[in-house]
Amino acid sequence: MSSDVCIPGAYRGSEEVTAVGWALKRIRSGKPRYTGAYRDDGGRLRSAGTFDSAREAIDAARRQEMKVGDGTWIDPAAGRITFAEYALEVWLPSRHLEVSTRAGYLSNLRTHLLRTHDPGEEQPSIVQGWVSHAVELGLSPRSIAKYHTMLHSVFARAVRDRMLAFNPCAATELPKVVLTKTRILTPAEFELLLAEIPDRFHVLVLTAIETGLR
Q1: Measured between alpha carbons, how far is 167 from 164 in angstroms, rounded to an integer?
Q2: Cα–Cα nearest to 22, from 41, 40, 9, 5
Q3: pLDDT tens-place string over residues 151-178
Q4: Total-model pTM
Q5: What three-state secondary structure class fits 159?
Q6: What is the DSSP string of 35-66?
Q7: pLDDT of 101-139, one tens digit each?
Q8: φ and ψ at residue 102, rounded to 5 degrees
Q9: CB within 8 A of 67, min separation 6: which ones?
Q10: Residues whose CB is less than 8 angstroms from the CB of residue 55 and which lie 6 or more positions away in sequence, other chains included
């Protein structure tokens, strides 16, 4: 036998004050229990936990609604979804990609990024450890930067979805990408090269050079 009673407001001693959240009183086996209730940023009803007193329940609900208000609220479901599930079932489907690009993203995720960590457990140190491990495996700095950009995008979406409070990729130390300098032919070398090219291709080669094509 049970019943639910909504108790609005918050209490300090015997005085009722203006606050957020409310408590649901449930009577089970003759004993009252109180569940703190609040709404998330999408308007969905959420539980802040069940307590022995209405004051505890309302205080817990108030704390959660304050987090909703200041943008620090995290979806409790974050701890029940793995990185692989989130990346493959939420992030990737949300991307508007060509078929070949999507296949490339999927391959990169499966080869380099999918792990068993939950999004809520990801910390900057874990991401930094992944970078260090990739360096040890001989992955090039350019490739590491590419995969890190993808990882950053996954976590950025998780932050927007309230799965994370911050992006753990925001301050990662990446290996430096050394740019290879392109050697430019001297005028004399260019003349020698042009002399070896059939006359019918001269206009094509000169157009390519003048327009910066490679």
Answers
A1: 7
A2: 9
A3: 999 999 988 887 777 899 988 999 987 7
A4: 0.56
A5: helix
A6: EEEEE-TTS-EEEEEEESSHHHHHHHHHHHHH
A7: 899 999 989 888 886 566 666 688 889 988 998 999 899
A8: -60, -40
A9: 73, 74
A10: 10, 11
Q: Please check the confidence at residue 21 and state whether its pLDDT lies above 50.
A: yes
What is the rounded average pLDDT for all residues in the chain? 78
Chain-centroid distance, C-alpha 132: 20
Let me know if residue 153 belongs to a domain: yes
Task: Give kind and range of the element (H or E) at residue 28.
Answer: strand 15-28
- Could you tell me where the beta strands, DSSP code E, fall in 45-127? 45-51
Q: Do the domain assignments include residue 29?
A: yes
Q: Is residue 55 part of a domain?
A: yes
User: Are residues 3 and 29 in contact, defined by beta-carbon separation less than 8 angstroms?
Assistant: no
CA dihedral angle for residue 17, residue 31, residue 47, residue 88, rounded to 10 degrees:
170
Domain co-membership, 68 together with 98: no
Q: Note down the domain range covering 213.
A: 181-214
Report whether pLDDT(186) > 50: yes
Number of domains within the chain: 3
